[in-house]
Amino acid sequence: MAKAVSKKPVAAKKAPKTARYSRILLKLSGEALMGETGFGVCPDTVDFIAREIKNTVAHKTQIAVVIGGGNIFRGIEAATSGMERVSADYMGMLATTINALALQNALERHDIETRVQSAIEMNEICEPYIRRKAVRHLEKGRVVIFAAGTGNPYFTTDTAAALRAMEMNAEIILKATKVDGVYTSDPVKHKGARKFSTIRYIDVLKRGLHVMDSTAISLCMDNELPIMVFNLMGKGNIRNIVTGKRVGTYIGA
Fold first, then answer.
1. Neighbours of 43 (CB within 10 A)
2. Residue 205 lies in a domain
3. The pTM is what?
4. Is 70 among the domain residues?
5. Residue 183 neighbours by CB distance under 10 Å
6. Which of 3, 54, 65, 231 could be 145's S-S partner, Cβ–Cβ 3.0 to 4.6 Å?
7. Is residue 18 part of a domain?
């Protein structure tokens, strides 16, 4: 009689992970939202950003967002014009909240669940910033938009982005700009400007390159949090970075 041969169960093949980063923080400037207009929020531009985020969420990447308010109000410029810096900065924080609500609306029109959390309490329009709650939203696949910077004057939204990225345990900051990376000088003004494919934090500081403010760069350097600088309006750029393709300039150790 033939002896029965026991067969070991075959382990199910795991689906390939398409995303290199499982959690990112996207830093948007307020100026990015105004598109070609000189002021305010351009609906077409905000809708484009929402679609780019949606395409990235499809790769199961958790996304947190920090938005500036320069398209509505810029605190430093107001302070140099005679306004008290603290008051000007608080006005800038309110401007970031307007932008956050605009992006939330655009994302939800594309069926992306979104939460806005503010460093300044505005209970009627958004949640207060609570770290554990924000992490839970991300784990549930929701996009979380952080408004009002750090909630303190004298700190930029760049610094807020670095701070929130570390609090959320993000693996990288995606810094969206109008150009496709970091250059030796402004490529719009200087045709001979050379683009970096990679650059160290310390070199960004030494060269005085205006990528993010020095506090934000130092914070990322101290905690070894990489930054990818890229062109926001390049279609598919956010998704390409998340899936491991080299886009823009990588800033790291």
1. 13
2. yes
3. 0.88
4. yes
5. 19
6. 65
7. no
| Mean pLDDT of each 10-residue bin along the chain, 253 residues long | 47 55 95 83 94 95 95 71 88 94 97 97 95 98 97 95 97 94 85 91 92 94 96 94 92 92
CA angle, 161 then 163 then 164, to 5°: 65
Q: Could you tell me the CATH number of the domain that includes residue 200?
A: 3.40.1160.10
Burial of 67 (0-12, 13-18, 19+ CB in 10 A): buried
Return the DSSP state at 5.
P
Q: Which residues is 146 bridged to in the sheet?
A: 66, 117
Residue with tokens 């002021």: 39
Whether 217 contacts 211, CB under 8 Å: yes
8 A C-beta contact, residue 58 and residue 89: no
Query: How many domains does one find in the chain?
Result: 1
Its domain, for residue 216, covers 23-252
Residue 226 included in any domain: yes
Contact present, 25 and 173 (Cβ < 8 Å): yes
